[in-house]
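ERR on first pass: missing label on line 2. Operator R.T. fixed the label and resubmitted. Corrected input:
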Amino acid sequence: MLLGDILNTNAQFLSRELAKLGINVYYQTVVGDNPARLLEAYKTAFGRADVVIATGGLGPTEDDLTKETAALYFGKELALDEESWEMIAAFFRKMHANMAPTNKKQAMMPIGSSVLKNRNGTAPGCFIEEGGKMLFLLPGPPNEAQPMYLNEVAPILRPRTERMFVSKTLKICGIGESQAEEMLKDLIDAQGNPSIAPYAKTSEVWFRITASAKNEGEAAELMKPTLDEIKKRLGRNIYGEDDESLVSVTAMLLMEKGLTLSAAESCTGGELSARLVDFPGISSVFLEGAVTYSNEAKIRRLGVKAATLEKYGAVSPQTAVEMAGGIARTSGSDIGISTTGIAGPDGGTPEKPVGLVYLGLSVKGEASVKELNLAGNRAKVRTRAVVSALDMIRRALLS
Amino acid sequence: MLLGDILNTNAQFLSRELAKLGINVYYQTVVGDNPARLLEAYKTAFGRADVVIATGGLGPTEDDLTKETAALYFGKELALDEESWEMIAAFFRKMHANMAPTNKKQAMMPIGSSVLKNRNGTAPGCFIEEGGKMLFLLPGPPNEAQPMYLNEVAPILRPRTERMFVSKTLKICGIGESQAEEMLKDLIDAQGNPSIAPYAKTSEVWFRITASAKNEGEAAELMKPTLDEIKKRLGRNIYGEDDESLVSVTAMLLMEKGLTLSAAESCTGGELSARLVDFPGISSVFLEGAVTYSNEAKIRRLGVKAATLEKYGAVSPQTAVEMAGGIARTSGSDIGISTTGIAGPDGGTPEKPVGLVYLGLSVKGEASVKELNLAGNRAKVRTRAVVSALDMIRRALLS
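pass 2 clean. output:
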């Protein structure tokens, strides 16, 4: 992990799970298999927290030191745990694999600790509690550490926490982060329980409202006034909540209204179609996508007029409108959406700089167009254009 | 990140890049936007390292404290940096967005620090060097932090390290990770300087060959025998090196041979086109993409026979071949590629399970087809199908 070969997915998993129990995670630290630095890390961690969860370093090799160093930190000896030793042996028999003598190391446990069972590998975990401090040692592989947390660690922690945290996320598109925060400034400044936390996403802003309460009902009650007020202020800029996505919300609106959609993409190159197809139920409303990157394809596939391309260029409101109308007509869809722009890194001019994108929309023959000036690299410009295109469809369906 | 909402990809990126410079990363720490804990984290970090790189907390809100706390730690005042302030204002003008008064906070810099330019967002970075300690402050979003590291931080660190690590990555597609490792087993077992590290990617395997040397020339000499031997053994399974991608390699082959390509996508839903358009130079060879998710679109757009769909189904080698031939013909391209399959989570049957995908290829009228049985969720199946489709084109162009 310190070489950058592995992403620390355990830290994310554990933090998310601990948040559900109302346990605040104050620090995540990664340290290597070095005895001095590892001991120092235990000292630092217990100097600032009551509960420490460590993952990794429970393997059979000499490099694996997490348990040995923990024993040293707490001043404990290690002794063979017969039950763990039998489980390790059984695991090897099941795998038809030969056990190395070093595997015995995995069954050595600090005296006075409790064993955390590992159903998915050979390394048992370990729980030490002393002087108001709790240390949990879990194996490194996520498919071992994560079930062990859920089955062995959470049941120990849960009865010791008094409160729970319940969150709701409101998802916003079409206004920037600072504008959204400005609109909620007094609420954010005065926040207590519930708290209001903004998250900036690519061309989206999410607000997570979190209440600390004894139970779900009390949390819902605490959150209601804040949620109602935010919804009132941001109105249609809020596209959805929690697990909803721009695509899922747009797809549901299309289905409700019995309307079909097709997409003609130039600068986004298929990303808009791909995003729509992310939603498994889309096939009943999304009829067709056309990636018309070249002028020839725009003319042949979509019926864009050569004169329009000549006079205004491929990146123009006129072309965007003809593309949207063309894909709706040739696919027999109620709605056509189009993208044409300059994603960069090359191709920009003073008049038409990189990041200039036009979105065309045709709803039952009625055309509209939107100009975007997007920041970022090629990938970012394309993704922002896709998000804005989805939002343009969504808003048209709401009005 | 402490709530488990975000994976710490910056830590991975920075660790990997620092390893290339021969700089050992001893700790990674995550700490929240809390002044006391943040200050404590700086103290702890500089108690055990000479160089500290921090990401995040450079935004305009009151929660953003990384720079302010760093100034406090080093006993420095903050002052407005006019150039940064001008860049932030220019960024907002380009976005046609209103600047909030709080954005001025982003241009406040500790006196005596150097500004690290941000070309991808509003938050400039900051570099403080004092008493043998170096602190780099980067913004949180990976698309801002990572280019800033490469463009601003690495050039400062590089001249200060004694040995350098030089790596070359060989990228493999079309054979699995264990098969590739088996073919190189004796080389991997006997590795020293250079080292050989495999990385499993989605339907790809990369081998990173790394030499530790005094300079680039010595590194190249050390690596040559290993590179030559791996290339000899893996042959055409190696599609490229370092920054080359399957798309860039395929695009270059198309250009070299003066051939044009179009794509007809069903299960991949536009992702293949989007991946092709990732490569800025693609427009001269990639004529058109069609996302024909429905049977009607396959018939109307591509001329797939209704009888074929009726008799063999949309997910069949016959349909794949007709789709590939159809898109080549209707777009006037030399090469047509098609995808049709069951990406899941629903739609699978015992005969045609989730993960079954057919790729069709038509090269100047000559058809071929490939059956894939892909593991993973909907997104994974689609991405694997896209990678295999690109590799199918690449191999056809090589033969």
